[in-house]
Design a protein that fits this description.
It comes from Mycena chlorophos (Agaric fungus). Its EC number is 3.2.1.8. It catalyses: Endohydrolysis of (1->4)-beta-D-xylosidic linkages in xylans. By secondary structure, this protein is of the alpha/beta class. Helices cover 34% and strands 16% of the residues. The strands form five sheets. Strands 3-4-5-6-7-8-10-11 form an eight-stranded parallel barrel, surrounded by six helices. It has a three-stranded antiparallel sheet with strand order 15-18-17, with no helix packed on it. The structure holds (3S,4R)-3-hydroxy-2-oxopiperidin-4-yl beta-D-xylopyranoside. The site of (3S,4R)-3-hydroxy-2-oxopiperidin-4-yl beta-D-xylopyranoside has 9 residues, from helix 2.
């Protein structure tokens, strides 16, 4: 069944940020999960085609990337040890990962990529309400636990998504329950069963997902922000507009229950899209968070805001790095964590300029998280293009449909290496070269981001980023070289002169 969601009437920038999130297939999880996932993907493709047909391709700005400046842009990527170094530098585990469900195609690719690139798992669909309580009162964590077990097998951490959402609900919801039954029985029972059942090692839970409206304006109260959403349970299921629940008790109850049953270190998040900057929707999410704290007494240092970050690689399709940094620091002042929870970036056409632009935006979002004291989870939604909920043609992920790394994957690896090496934060490269140019041994900027050039000396065979390998014919050493000092298999690093070593066939 295709269920049209409430029309989005937000400001232009918000619509731009998330252009085709209008329809979902609502499925019974156990019966037709595979078919449903495939159909959803087809619909996503269809909608994408419908929306972008006739749209003129934007000329993307030329961007300056770390992969142009000494970091590898080809060859095998293995960032597992770099992620360990990032965590050491941050003084807290940095969870970098992607989505997985056991029905995903190409299991052997998943087995490999969750050892070498992603080290953190989120179940794409397996922990949602339709999957975990298909029959009222009967908790079924089969798929959710299976994805967690996959994570454990490869030494990955696991995050929970989600315990409450108006979408992907079981067929018995919304039903005709009273507000009191929903708030005092159905929600707490579900949240308890899921959070208790998944255990205390879950890094964070999206306790409520997408509760804030798209048409919000500055100054709205937390309740107004949620009522603006126009979805169950603040409207009846038939869309008549008569509220079922007239306050935020359903959110408070979900959080109180989560706090009671989650592990002592598990962060409890409110997760939403089109958020991250100094805009009305982000202000609303913060207002709801403050209201949760005031009404539940959960300490701020157990709370988090998840920024989904479903983006497009075009002007207005993403937040600037400085806007993100400012929001993250507002949250840090409260003790609240900021998390990038569902990052993907649609490109208009899968060409070199767009893929480089995509790489720059990805790098900037990652930097915003890396260099913030309160951001330690970064999840990429769907690990490769052919599995993306945004459709294959959106080319919205880090790996192409053959599972090969795209420029964004190399740039992400480079930003992680750059951070782990203790280098200064690069300027906002998605702004384009006119305001941001990265140079060889660090970064310089003429833009507004706080960045200084940094230097690190290295000679052939030492001092470069670890866990990476330069491709055949690529540079692998030399005075001032800061890139990989290992070579792809079948090649050896050979010094040509003091300034240049190259990966040559063995
Ligand atoms: C998407 C999944 O990726 C799809 O497979 C599914 O058909 C629909 O949901 N925001 C969320 C995620 O919080 O749960 C959504 O995931 C993407 C948008």
């Amino acid at each position: 069944m295709i269920v049209p969601m409430a029309p989005k009437v937000g400001p232009a920038t918000e619509r731009e940020l998330r252009p085709h999130y209008g329809y979902f297939f609502i499925c019974s999880f156990h019966s037709i999960l595979r078919a449903c996932a495939a159909m959803s993907s087809l619909v996503a493709s269809f909608i994408a085609i419908a929306i972008f047909a006739g749209r003129v391709a934007n000329a993307q700005p030329a961007v300056s990337l770390l992969i142009d400046n000494g970091y590898p842009s080809s060859g095998t990527l293995n960032i597992a040890s770099v992620l360990t170094q990032v965590s050491a530098k941050k003084g807290q585990t940095f969870h970098f990962g992607s989505t997985y469900d056991t029905y995903d195609a190409d299991q052997s690719w998943f087995d490999s990529i969750f050892q070498t690139f992603f080290k953190h798992v989120v179940s794409e669909n397996g922990c949602k309400w339709d999957a975990t309580e298909p029959t009222q009162g009967t908790s079924d964590l089969t798929e959710c636990l299976a994805t967690q077990s996959f994570a454990t097998t490869y030494g990955n951490s696991f995050r929970g998504h989600n315990t409450f959402w108006h979408s992907q609900t079981p067929s018995w919801l919304p039903g005709s329950f009273s507000a009191s039954t929903l708030v005092n029985t159905i929600i707490p029972q579900h949240v308890q069963a899921e959070i208790q059942g998944m255990g205390s090692s879950v890094t964070s839970w999206d306790v409520v997902n997408e509760v804030v409206g798209d048409g919000v304006s500055n100054g709205m109260t937390a309740l107004q922000c949620v009522q603006n959403k126009g979805d169950w349970p603040t409207v009846t299921s038939d869309g008549s507009g008569t509220p079922l629940v007239t306050d935020l008790s359903f959110i408070y109850q979900a959080f109180k229950t989560a706090y009671t049953y989650a592990g002592a270190n598990t962060r409890l998040a409110i997760n939403d899209y089109n958020t991250g900057g100094q805009d009305a929707k982000t202000a609303c999410v913060i207002a709801v968070l403050e209201s949760i704290q005031a009404n539940t007494s959960i300490p701020y240092d157990r709370l988090a805001i998840g920024f989904q970050s479903h983006l497009t690689a075009s002007t207005g399709g993403f937040y600037t790095k400085s806007a993100l940094a400012s929001t993250f620091s507002t949250l840090a002042a409260l003790g609240v964590n900021a998390m990038i929870t569902e990052m993907d970036i649609e490109v208009n056409t899968d060409n070199t300029a767009n893929l480089r632009y995509q790489a720059a935006i990805w790098g900037d979002y990652l930097d915003a998280c890396l260099y913030a004291s309160n951001c330690n989870e970064f999840i990429n939604w769907d690990p490769r293009d052919d599995l993306s909920w945004r459709g294959t043609s959106a080319a919205a992920t880090l790996f192409d449909s053959n599972g090969n790394p795209k420029p964004a994957a190399y740039e992400v690896a480079a930003r992680l290496q750059n951070y782990a090496a203790g280098n200064a934060e690069p300027c906002a490269t998605s702004s384009g070269t006119s305001v941001c140019t990265i140079t060889g041994t660090g970064s310089t900027t003429t833009g507004s981001s706080s960045s200084t050039s940094s230097t690190k000396s290295s000679s052939s065979g030492s001092g470069g980023p670890t866990g990476c390998a330069s491709a055949e014919w690529g540079q692998c050493g030399g005075m001032g070289w800061t890139g990989c000092t290992s070579c792809a298999s079948g090649t050896t690093c050979q010094e040509q002169n003091a300034y240049y070593s190259q990966c040559l066939p063995s």
